[in-house]
Design goal:
Largest sheet of chain A: 2 strands, antiparallel
Order of helices and strands of chain A: HHHHHHHEEHHHHHHHH
Largest sheet of chain B: 6 strands, mixed
CATH class of the domain at 3-25 and 117-283 in chain B: Alpha Beta
Helix content of chain B: 25-40%
Radius of gyration of chain B: 21 Å
Structural class of chain B: alpha/beta
CATH architecture of the domain at 3-25 and 117-283 in chain B: 3-Layer(aba) Sandwich
Largest interface: A-B, 47 and 76 residues
Oligomer: heterodimer
Shape of chain A: globular
Radius of gyration of chain A: 22 Å
Structural class of chain A: mainly alpha
Distance between the termini of chain B: 47 Å
Strand content of chain B: 15-25%
């Protein structure tokens, strides 16, 4: 049997002629899968509002992405799921009662300004979801710091503040804290039974998602360990230096630390590329978070978002400083 | 105890799907001569060989038909008796055309090797044996094609203490070395002993990846009792474990300096097929005119391991393996990680053709390059510890100077970065382009001082 001349021409391309099967859309899909537990927790604690905000943000992000690519005459990229990830993460960083139009405005800023003006996924210097949140915090400060009255302290104590803002208030006024980090209170914090942004309250749910990302090797341990480790060390030192310092586990379980450390500070595009760079990035995030939380006497109680955004700005510098030498080369 | 496990492992690397099961149990089968042999004069690294015969001359098997042209070059011998039809440019598996000699076998296979057998090699001077290896036209058969006699003649100030016989065969699909290790275990050890004698090397390792347990067992049992300091070294299965510099690190922990050679750290690495050919050249006085080649992939009817003559057209190999089955989309000479895609099956095999892969559309993915998302996977995969993400962005923006400053010339195009890239960036293609531009610039600038 003589070999048949192929009807179609042979494909000639550079090696390698095989691929691991990884893809950007698979990575983004994994992030979405990893956010499911936190979404479930958000629905449990905030009900309809969690569904509303997430749906509005995702839809707004996808439509904005589609429109931007269309306007720029570039390939449609909504199928890489990165816009959907931005939508979910932005929604998770919003308070439950935020009006939908504000969520849409934040989404448009996140995708159109923070991402597509730079050229789209891969070129954006800052985390788009965090830019969207920062934009809303500055322009809609009232709505972004209004929390529904809930009884997370005890069944009869109603509060409209987040734990972090309560702590910051008492630091200013000198009043005693309305809560202490007892065992049951810590449990409330861990599962997410408190006021806060819809996706950040439940450390338990976030950790389940984080485990999935680590197992799938979408993220590495470097940033979360450096970030959380720095918060722990800073918190321990703070406890020994200051009489009214909150315990370390308060800092770990309150605010956006868990969501930030596992889902925002691990964004590949806006963080350094080498392992050592990622560790520096994580340490910077941890330090800035704790400085904002415990030193800066401002109105804004949580530091995670701004810490990550500031460190995003340092990413090119860190990359430049953390070049490595090839195998067989010496300084 | 002669089996040891590699005490080190190089950093980086990837785990492709190996597809070895298709051919690893297929014994080496000798392929008859094709109707025409097209023998490239450029089967090795360095200058093409100089033809010694002219069209219409008759040649006998084993006759030297082209001589080494300079120090880094290699002689070429007639695989059989016949008539020289023509000498002219022909495509090579590496893509660029080179002078080639077309020989029409006369069917008698008259064989007259110019090299007398050397059975008492232990009493023969190393220099004489190295010259024999050169006279037999032996080159590195793992893929690079570096003339072996040069490797076996290290300068006096570079003493060699360690010889590693490279049986990693880390490329997907390929199993020719595996078959040589299984079917000719004693001969490979004898070849190793000859090379060790030439180099005066005191430590001899045959290094095999742990995904070839049969070969490990066979080679362990075949260790000659009279060969001191010979061990079988089991390597972790990881691509590119067969890379010389990385294998030296895995086995000995020594790091070959960038731009240096294995001899700089007292090592020489020889591929299994090369070792077998060296033994043949010394003991039997046979020049290198045949080699093992794995014909595999999902678009060939009967994948097999063949012993074929250099100059055999790829189409003849395919025919011997039952022809094309299904849709043929891509033909690769070598393995899927570092092999070369072929535009046609008319190309003929050379001394470095370790595999011929026929791939169907299901095995050939085509991608559109996306923007780098800085995931860092290429950094973890790169066995040279380069930063492919950064390099590719320099190269895309035509910043070749920065690519050079970031050591793009250290890249040996193993493909690990592109293999893992989720943005499907053609990283190896970028590196190749930058390296070619830099090489052209260096040539234009004239010989470098020193």
């Amino acid at each position: 049997m003589k070999p048949q001349a192929p009807d179609n021409l042979l494909l000639v391309s550079s090696s390698p002629h095989t691929h691991s099967g990884s893809s950007v859309s698979r990575i983004m899909a994994d992030v979405l899968i990893a956010l499911i537990p936190a979404f479930a927790a958000a629905c449990w604690f905030f009900g309809w509002n969690a569904v509303r905000l997430t749906a509005v943000c995702v839809a707004a992000c996808l439509i904005t992405e589609w429109l931007c690519r269309k306007a720029m005459r570039r390939a449609n990229t909504i199928a890489d799921f990165s816009a959907a990830v931005t939508g979910v993460l932005l929604a998770f960083n919003l308070p439950p009662d935020l009006p939908s139009w504000m969520a849409i405005a934040g989404s448009v800023v996140a995708i159109a300004i923070a991402k597509q003006t730079f050229g789209g996924l891969g070129y954006n210097p800052f985390n788009p979801a965090l830019i969207g949140r920062a934009f809303l915090l500055i322009s809609c400060t009232g709505a972004m710091t209004t929390w529904s009255a809930s009884n997370w302290l005890s069944p009869d104590a109603i509060t409209t503040a987040t734990p972090l803002s309560l702590v910051k208030e008492t630091l200013k006024t000198g009043d005693p804290l309305p809560f202490t980090m007892t065992g049951p209170m810590t449990w409330n914090f861990f599962i997410g039974n408190m006021n806060g942004c819809i996706g950040e309250v439940s450390a338990a749910a976030i950790l389940i998602g984080a485990a999935y990302l680590l197992i799938r090797r979408v993220i590495t341990w470097h940033v979360p360990v450096a970030f959380i480790g720095t918060v722990i060390i800073y918190g321990l030192i703070h406890m020994t230096c200051s009489a009214n310092a909150m315990p370390v586990h308060f800092h770990l379980l309150s605010g956006g630390l868990m969501l930030g450390a596992f889902f925002m500070a691990t964004d590949m595009v806006t963080t350094p590329i080498t392992h050592i760079g990622l560790i520096i990035f994580g340490i910077g995030c941890g330090l800035l978070t704790m400085i904002i939380r415990t030193v800066i006497n401002g109105d804004y109680p949580d530091g995670v978002s701004f810490a990550i955004l500031v460190m995003n700005a340092f990413t090119p510098l860190i990359n430049r400083a953390c070049k490595r030498l090839p195998f067989g080369r010496k300084k | 105890m002669k089996r040891l496990y590699a005490p080190f492992n190089f950093r980086g690397g990837v785990s492709p799907t190996y597809h070895k099961e298709t051919t690893c149990n297929s014994p080496l089968r000798e392929l008859p001569l094709p109707p025409l042999l097209t023998i490239s004069m450029s089967q090795h690294l360095g200058a093409p060989a100089k033809p010694l015969v002219s069209p219409d001359d008759t040649v006998v098997g084993g006759q030297m038909i082209a001589a080494a042209a300079g120090m880094i070059s290699a002689a070429i011998h007639a695989p059989t008796s016949g008539r020289v039809v023509s000498i002219g440019d022909a495509a090579t598996p590496l893509g660029r055309p080179a002078p080639a000699m077309v020989i029409e076998p006369d069917g008698n296979h008259t064989w007259q090797s110019p090299l007398p057998p050397i059975t008492n090699w232990r009493e023969v001077a190393p220099r004489t044996l190295a010259e024999r290896v050169g006279a037999a036209g032996i080159v590195g058969m793992g893929g690079a094609g570096f003339p072996t006699h040069v490797k076996l003649s290290p300068p006096a100030d570079k003493p060699i203490d360690t010889l590693i016989i490279n049986g990693a065969e880390c490329e997907p699909y390929l199993s020719g070395d595996n078959r040589i290790l299984l079917e000719h275990s004693a001969a490979v050890w004898e070849g190793a002993a000859i090379i060790a004698h030439i180099l005066k090397a005191t430590n001899i390792y045959v290094a095999i990846e742990d995904n070839k347990p049969d070969a490990v067992r066979a080679m362990e049992q075949a260790i000659p009792a009279d060969l001191a300091n010979a061990s079988l070294c089991v390597l972790k299965t990881s691509f590119p474990q067969g890379s010389e510099k990385h294998q030296i690190f895995s086995v000995t922990g020594r790091t070959v300096p960038a731009g240096g050679l294995p001899m700089d750290v007292g090592c020489v690495v020889e591929n299994v097929a090369t070792t077998y050919a060296i033994r043949d050249a010394v003991i039997n006085g046979q020049p290198l005119v045949t080699r093992s080649i794995t014909v595999s992939g999902d678009a060939v009817a009967a994948p097999a391991n063949l012993i074929a003559h250099i100059g055999t057209p790829f189409s003849y190999l395919v025919e011997a393996c039952g022809g094309v089955s299904g849709t043929l989309t891509k033909v690769v000479s070598g393995g899927t990680m570092m092999g070369f895609a072929q535009a046609s099956l008319d190309v003929t095999m050379t001394k470095t053709s370790s595999g011929l892969l026929l791939l169907s559309p299901s095995q050939v993915k085509q991608f559109t390059s996306q923007a780098c998302i800085s995931c860092g996977r290429c950094l973890n995969a790169c066995p040279m510890r380069l930063m492919p993400a950064e390099l590719s962005q320099y190269i895309e923006s035509e910043d070749i100077a920065n690519a050079e400053a970031s050591f793009v010339m250290d890249c040996f195009e193993c493909g690990s970065c592109a293999f893992v890239c989720p943005a499907h960036r053609p990283l190896v293609q970028h590196m190749r382009r930058a390296k070619a531009i830099i090489m052209a610039q260096r040539r234009a600038a004239g010989p470098r001082p020193g």
